[in-house]
């Protein structure tokens, strides 16, 4: 059997080999360039806002009015998500007190600020579902009718308010692993959505998705979908416990946005961009060193950048009460770093 002749690499063959290698490298470069442009390019000049919860400020022993006005007048924030806790505004059945929320809405309007008003059973901040004690004694149809009656009063009270821009219905409505809530009820969610559209057809209704909830496939279909975006947090759901970097990269959020746009014809926004610690205990009981493990002066610009690279033109921050608590207790570094990022080009 004859031995095969060795391949002779002539100058012409070498040129071809080099050309193929360059073509492969060029293709890889183009792919990465496209991925960079599509996945990682930060949005320019996003519209920033912040969630504000009176009860959270009170948990920090703050003057909640001063906290709110500082966000308005010092940081010059002009977009807010406010809450309408059922437990706060109807503590006794049929007796209502909206004075605190009226004040927040009015102060926003005085400065030309806009409000996305959270409505429904499940709203931002632990324990997520803010139900008055008397409602716990109700069940089934009677409980739902009491909730709907309360929601109708809220919508009718604020639907003509100059500060109102949108509603956010049932914060992370199908999130059944976080908070102390009744089981998610799709039928109730659809009914709530239809009722709000009936009571106020002039303002959009937004709904939010948590990090781990992927593509919405069921009804209702809101006017826009919100993302929660968390980076560093304390994990006590698996063993071992400890701090984790949440495993949702930028491309995942961008891909979700494209699929939602394709399947639902809806845009997305960031309804919670983490800007406060998430530790093993209540934040005010954590040392500064422990707070820094999940949110610090150095982490704040990184989180802003991560949010901008998701590509949404609307970003609502999470933690305005914590920034102010640190400030009034002698450490303005967090507050000033947020200011810096809000004003960054």
Structure description:
This protein is α/β, with parallel strands linked by helices. It is 42% helix and 15% strand. The protein contains twelve helices and ten strands. The strands form two sheets. An eight-stranded parallel beta barrel has the order 1-2-3-4-5-6-9-10, surrounded by five helices. A hairpin with a 6-residue loop joins strand 7 and strand 8. Helix 8 runs parallel beside helix 10. It is globular, with a radius of gyration of 25 Å.
Show the helix and strand layout.
Blueprint lengths: L10 H30 L6 E5 L2 H6 L4 H10 L5 E5 L2 H4 L9 H12 L3 E6 L20 H19 L5 E6 L16 H14 L5 E5 L14 E6 L2 E4 L6 E4 L4 H15 L3 E7 L13 H5 L6 H12 L3 E5 L1 H9 L4 H10 L3
Parallel strand pairs: 1-2, 1-10, 2-3, 3-4, 4-5, 5-6, 6-9, 9-10
Antiparallel strand pairs: 7-8
Low-confidence stretches: none
Beta fraction of the residues?
15-25%
The coarse overall form would be globular
Mean pLDDT: 90
**Number of helical elements:** 12
Helix content: 40-55%
Largest sheet strand order:
1-2-3-4-5-6-9-10
Query: Gyration radius, to the nearest Å?
Result: 25 Å
Distance between the termini: 74 Å
Largest sheet: 8 strands, parallel, barrel
* Oligomeric organization of the protein chains: single chain
Helix-strand category: alpha/beta
Index terms:
two-stranded antiparallel sheet, globular, 345 residues, 15% strand, 10 strands, alpha/beta
Quick recap:
The protein is built from twelve helices and ten strands. It has 345 residues and is an alpha/beta fold. Strands 1-2-3-4-5-6-9-10 form an eight-stranded parallel beta barrel, surrounded by five helices. A two-stranded antiparallel ribbon has the order 7-8.
